[in-house]
Design a protein that fits this description.
By secondary structure, the protein is mainly α. It folds into two domains: about 180 residues, no CATH class; about 170 residues, no CATH class.
Amino acid sequence: MQSETMQSEKFLKSWLLLTAAAIFLMVLLGGATRLTESGLSITEWQPIGGAIPPLSDADWQELFARYQATAQYKLLNHGMDVAAFKNIFWWEYFHRLWGRLIGLVVGLPLIWMMIRRQIDWKLGKKLMVIFALGAAQGAVGWWMVKSGLDGRAWVSPVRLAFHLGLAVVIYGLVVQMYFAQTARPGTDAPVALAGRRAGGFILALSFITILAGALVAGLHAGLIYNQFPLMGRTYVPEDYWPPHLAHSLVNFIANACQNPAAAQFHHRVLAVSLCLAALTWASGIFRQTNIPGLRRAALAVIAAVVLQMSLGLSTLLLSVPLVLAVMHQAGALIMVTAILYLHEMVRRRVTGG
C-alpha cells in the first residue's frame, strides 16, 4: 500500500512537471507566432477538424484565399505568394496543435488518476480548475485572433495581454502545485516569515509587468525609443500623453492600452521596479538565513531577474530581433518560476533539501 502511494505521488509530480514544460513551450510558440505576424493566417476556429493540416494544393489555395480577404494581407502582406503564406501558416498551426496536445497531456492522466483514486478530492478539484482554465484558453485565443479579423491588421493588444496573462496564471498554478508536492517541511525561520508578504507582492508585480509587456508587444512599441534609460531626450517620452486627451482614470487606461509610447514607458517603470524589489527581497533572505534550500532559492531569483533584465534591455536596444524576443518571453517564465519557488519555500518554511 505504501509502495502504491509512493508510485502515485511520483506519477503526479512527473505529470505536473511535464504539464508545466508543455505550457512553457506553448508560451514560446505563441510569442514566435506573434513576432512573425502569423496569428491571423488561420481565419477559422475548428477545435477538432483544424488539427488536420492542408493536404493538397487546393486546400492551400482555399486557406490562402481566406487570408487574402483579411485586412492584414491587404495592408501589410499584399502581394504575398502561397509559399510565403505557408511560412506564417505553420507557426499558427503548430501553436494551435500544441494547445490540443496539452489538453490530452493534462486531461487523460487526470481522468486516469481520478478513476483510480490516486489523488484526493481536494487536489482533484484544483486540478480540474486548471484543466478548465486550459480549455477556456483555447476560446480566449480565438477571441484574440478574431479581433484581428474585423478590419484590423493586428489583434487587439488588450486581448493579447489577456491571452498571455491567462497562460501565465495556468503555468503558475501548475508550477506552484508541483513545488507544493515536492516541498518537505522544515524548521521555522524568522526570515521566512518576514518575507512571506513580500513574496506575494513580487509575484503580483511580476504578473502586472508581464501584462504590460504584452501591451508593448501588441502595440509594436518595442520598435520605438530603442535606447535606455532615456526615451528620446527625456526619461518620460514627449508623446506619453496626447495633448487633446483630458486627464482622467478612464483616459489613463485607454492611453496605456493604445499609445505605444505610454505602453513602453509603463513596462520600463514596472520592470525596473520589479528588478529592484525582487533583488532586495532575495538578497535579504540570502544574507539573513543559513538554511541551504532558502539560500539556493534566493540565488535562483537573483540570477533569473538579472537574466531577464539583460534580455529585456538587449531586445529593446536591438529593435526586437526574433530570437532575443522569444528568449525574453522565456526569461519571464523562468523568473516567475524562481520567484514561485522561493515564495513557496518561504510560505511553507521548508528546507528544500
